[in-house]
Amino acid sequence: MTHLIRPPSESPVPAADALLKFARSIEALELAVRDLLVNFWHEPLRERAWSLAQEMSDGCKGGGFRESSVLLRSLQALLALSVEDTKGIQRSIAERLLELMGILKEQARRTQP
């Protein structure tokens, strides 16, 4: 019956609720990235962080968080690298991951009511 009240294109999740869930997702992703960096490129941790970034990116596309979706795709690209791909550039990758997480968190802060 709600489809009669709300246009089908409108999100069924209130904006404030979506922002809260997004902020919590960022926290989970940040923890996953930090765990990965402490245990550099341990495969299960890398897969977890990549999976979280992918889920969030997919959610951002549908939820109207376009800027965040771009950042999350950048995170995904870095998290998709194999341990062999990271040899010699681990520090640069770690710095870029933390930088992207910082930007993502700042975007989330700016969009909160």
What do you see in this structure?
With 113 residues, this protein is mainly alpha-helical. It has a domain at 39-113. Helix content is 75%, strand content 0%. The chain is built from five helices and no strands. Helix 2 (15-38) runs antiparallel to helix 3 and helix 2 runs antiparallel to helix 5 (90-111).
Outline type: elongated
- What share of the residues lie within helices? over 70%
Q: How many DSSP H or I helices?
A: 5
Low-confidence stretches: 1-7
Structural class: mainly alpha
Radius of gyration: 16 Å
Calculate the terminal CA-CA distance, rounded to whole Å.
29 Å
Main beta sheet strand tally, sense and closure: none
DSSP strand content: under 5%
Please tally the β strands and state the result: 0
Average predicted local confidence, pLDDT: 84
Order of helices and strands: HHHHH
Concise description?
The protein has about 110 residues and is mainly alpha-helical. Helix content is about 75%, strand content about 0%.
Please supply descriptive tags for the structure shown above.
75% helix; single chain; mainly alpha; 0% strand; 113 residues; disordered N terminus; elongated
Topology:
Layout: H1 2-5, H2 15-38, H3 43-63, H4 66-79, H5 90-111
